[in-house]
Design brief:
The protein has about 200 residues and is of the alpha+beta class. The chain contains four helices and eight strands, in the order E-H-E-H-E-E-H-E-E-H-E-E.
């Protein structure tokens, strides 16, 4: 089934850690994802801190050591430069990215020793494809972090061409949860006119 963005559930079953350092080759011309959420959230994000660049295991240890609250699960983006940026879980992805397009985005969970135990592409502000995993893997491999071999929970997003709502697709059910029209078979969020994106969910 498909669900509109405003009913996107928080991941509950994280899944198990499946591998450590499986090699991952990033395509030369990887897709980038523009922000598709409400303009007011993007404007508010201008006054919020950008995500912390993580370029080494030392950077990761420092970030985990200073994280507060739900510190072992972070909001992450992979920047256009391919850097991993981390922010507290409640942060908007667009703030973590400094308002820029990203190579991937979602949530990342760590063990206290810095091992990545779970990664999702859950970001309705960017709606990255599951195929963005190589960008995440490459960013983690560059810093030497142990990681899963793929997203431990992957989400598909589609924009309804009839009513304009952004849907989270489940079980391959390509039907809009708002107007019951068929959803496109391929990812189509980049075609959205940013001026009409005010009613799209973010985070």
């Amino acid at each position: 089934m498909a669900v509109p963005w405003f009913t996107v559930p928080a991941p509950s079953d994280i899944g198990e850690h499946r591998s450590t350092r499986a090699p991952c080759n990033v395509p030369v011309m990887a897709r980038t994802y523009p922000y598709i959420g409400p303009a007011d959230i993007r404007e508010a994000a201008r006054s919020q801190p950008r995500g912390t660049p993580i370029r080494s295991l030392g950077d990761l240890a420092n970030w985990l050591g200073t994280a507060r609250g739900d510190g072992l699960t972070a909001t992450f983006v992979v920047s256009l430069a391919g850097d991993l940026l981390l922010a507290p879980r409640q942060s908007e992805h667009v703030a973590a990215a400094g308002g820029e397009p990203v190579r991937s985005a979602g949530e990342m969970t760590f063990d206290p020793d810095g091992t990545v135990t779970a990664v999702t592409n859950q970001s309705t502000g960017y709606g990255p494809e599951p195929d963005s995993w190589p960008e995440v893997a490459s960013a983690l491999d560059r810093i030497g972090a142990l990681r899963p071999s793929a997203f431990t929970e992957a989400f598909d997003f589609r924009r309804c061409t009839s009513c304009g709502s952004v849907n989270l697709v489940k079980d391959g059910w390509l039907v809009c949860a708002v107007c019951d029209q068929n959803l496109p078979k391929i990812w189509n969020l980049a075609s959205v006119d940013q001026m009409d994106a005010g009613d799209i969910g973010a985070h």
